[in-house]
Specification:
This protein is an alpha+beta fold and 212 residues long. It has one domain (2-23, 45-206): Porin. 16% of the residues lie in helices and 59% in strands. It has helices at residues 2-30, 192-195, and strands at residues 32-33, 39-40, 46-61, 64-77, 81-89, 94-95, 104-122, 126-144, 148-166, 171-183, 197-206. A hairpin with a 3-residue loop joins strand 4 (64-77) and strand 5 (81-89). The longest helix is centred in the first third of the chain and has 29 residues, at 2-30.
Length: 212
């Protein structure tokens, strides 16, 4: 877990450094002063209306392959900064250790929250960027035959890199890779490390450009 925390802090630090440097460059190019010496800045401009849609995320949970459904979406400001949200959930659980031979136990979870990102490259056909999803997750255990199991909440931090291919005026193909860091879960049958892990996703986003 310490290695995961260290990796996360390094990623966040690099992300903030790039964002701050770019933000300063934008400020220096847009600010001006009047006779009183006060600085004025141009308004933050939304350069792309929110693109959003659904997709599928593939990952590993408890060393087992798992598919999650959900989606993400964001708006772009000043052609560089993105703000939005996203979330994923498991339609089918993964197996956990069985307390009894005649009882099957499964684990399911989902998470969602706010997404902050930065666009490194963009033209009319392709966009490449990175983002961080800060989310709240909920997991629970279900058994067969049906019985009530543990339900817990936990924190999720998921940095990602992605590319978006423009397929039309209103449609984009979104493909990305991420790593899910989970902390604060207190399940008796599965730990943070077993819920954390790398993921890849594919989604179709619908939106439009703010041309004005």
């Amino acid at each position: 877990m310490k290695n995961q925390i260290s990796t996360t802090l390094i990623f966040v630090f690099c992300f903030l450094c790039v964002s701050i440097t770019t933000s300063k460059a934008i400020d220096n190019s847009t600010q001006y002063s009047d006779s009183s010496g006060k600085a004025f800045y141009k308004d933050i401009k939304m350069t792309s209306l929110a693109f959003g849609g659904t997709g599928v995320l593939f990952t590993k949970v408890n060393n087992q392959f798992a598919a999650m459904t959900g989606g993400r979406g964001s708006a772009t400001f000043n052609n560089r900064f993105t703000f939005g949200g996203g979330g994923w959930g498991m339609p089918k659980g993964v197996k956990t250790e069985n307390g009894k031979t005649d009882t099957l136990k499964y684990f399911k979870f989902g998470y969602g929250g706010l997404e902050f990102g930065y666009v490194f490259f963009e033209d009319q056909k392709l966009r490449f960027g990175a983002n961080i999803l800060t989310a709240c997750g909920v997991g629970f255990q279900e058994t067969v035959p049906e019985a009530k199991g543990e339900t817990k909440m936990f924190s999720v931090l998921e940095p990602a890199i992605y590319s978006q291919i423009t397929m039309g005026r209103l449609l984009k193909l979104d493909v990305g890779a991420s790593y899910r860091f989970v902390s604060g879960s207190t399940f008796s049958f599965i730990n943070n490390r077993q819920i954390s892990g790398p993921s890849i996703y594919i989604a179709f986003l619908v939106g439009t450009c703010n041309c004005k």
